[in-house]
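Example 3.2
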Amino acid sequence: MNDELKEVMKTSLIGTIGFMWVAGGIATILESFDVHWALGWLVLFVWIWGCGSAALYFDVKRYFNY
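Structure, written as tokens:
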């Protein structure tokens, strides 16, 4: 794995962790107001965003050279 790809992966990982903290804070606030339906949508959004960013930043074809 080259240095450029490592830096992109580190940046993506740090961004994802930061976003998860923000999402957790929002979920805590929603939970305190008993807005349970919004938690499901928030979790779905975080999951889709995480999968999309992983697919964008970690190109498996490029890494395995096929």
